[in-house]
Automatic annotation (TrEMBL):
Gene: rdgC
Family: Belongs to the RdgC family.
Subcellular location: Cytoplasm, Nucleoid
Function: May be involved in recombination.
Main subcellular location of this protein, as a coarse class: cytoplasm
GO cellular component: bacterial nucleoid; cytoplasm
Protein's organism: Zhongshania aliphaticivorans
Pfam families on file: RdgC
One biological process term in Gene Ontology: regulation of DNA recombination
Keywords (A to Z) from UniProt: Cytoplasm, DNA recombination
UniProt-recorded name of the protein: Recombination-associated protein RdgC
Record GO terms (molecular function): double-stranded DNA binding
Amino acid sequence: MWFKNLLIYRFTKPFTLTADEVDQKLGEMAFSPCNSQDPSSYGWTMPLGSQGSQYVHSANGYIMVCAKKQEKILPAAVINEVLADKLEEIKSQEDRRPGRKERTDLKEEIIFSLLPRAFTRSNRVFAYIAPQEGLLIVDAGSHNKAEELMVLLRESLGSLPVIPIKAKNVAQHAMTEWLTNGSAPKGFELGGECELRDKADDSAVIRCKNQNLCSTEINNHIQAGMFVNKLALHWVGDIDFIVDDQLTIKRLSFGDLVQEKIGETNADSAAEQFDVDFNIMTGEFAKFIPAVLDAFGGEDTAEQDPVISSAA
């Protein structure tokens, strides 16, 4: 359950639904496995899995949700092989080559016939709503996965007025300045990894790992016109992570301070442990996310509802 990535979205209006109301609405769009002809299926599942009884998990005002996607696996090579055999059969029996439209129709027929026999794979995406902070936090490694969850959440709740969180300072400029000056902002330390991109040619990329980011070599690249696109940082609250130019946070790693908090608890079941972990994780993120935003000059609240702006 511990999040590995953070895609952070700001509610532009206060979120007023209760956990029970969210649970009821999500239950109406619950996940069901693919039937024989469905290429995929997407819906809500219980965050606690078989240990749960609700489509949300709520603690300290935070509301966790979990979307599940199941997809049929039909390798392109298999489809193309069956299609090639079919085309060869038509050529042999009818002495002709099917045109583009007929080939497309044949391919669709082949996919339709193979779907019932296809293997399936499933994955889950967790997210939680922080009403008091006006945030939606998604544990997704890509914006596409997060958007997929948000589309489903919007359909389930009726509306979802959120925008990607923004900082006042341009992330690339700020991170480049940190490396140029050789120091991270207050409360953070530079890690050993970064990605540099050329201002004149976006395809020109240099990736540095296990390096001294304040080295002359890296500084020379910056002076030559490159900027920092991704940067590894350590937060004093004992979280290591990588942040990019869109304020996407990846490869979260919780250090000893957080692990000690987990070790101090005595959970008697998997459900109790999930609750403990959720409480600790959201508590850490409640301090971590504002710290990250402050490092980039604070949050840009121009598009927010005045009520949220005053609370942020």
